What we know:
Layout: H1 12-19, E1 23-28, H2 35-46, H3 50-63, E2 65-71, H4 73-85, E3 90-92
Helix pairs in contact: 2-3
Amino acid sequence: MSVEVEQETFTLEEILAATKESNKLILWNDEINTFDHVIFCLMHYLQYTEDEASKIAWTVHTKGKCTILEGSYTEMEVYRKILKSEGLTVSIE
Length: 93
């Protein structure tokens, strides 16, 4: 009795794409921070333009939260700590 096994091959790009974990840094609405402070932090730490930062601040205000950055967990944790130290309410999903 013989058993045939089909071998499947993958490219390096396919393997990396499948194993890459994408984490999201979420900015939450709060009653503490002003629009100006949120916009300043987004521009200063994440290099958003004033227009982009304003749109994000408005989205957070109207929808309660907004994804502001995506990447590795380690990278998101660094930015979470920075923005938290500025008083912003942020989490990683």
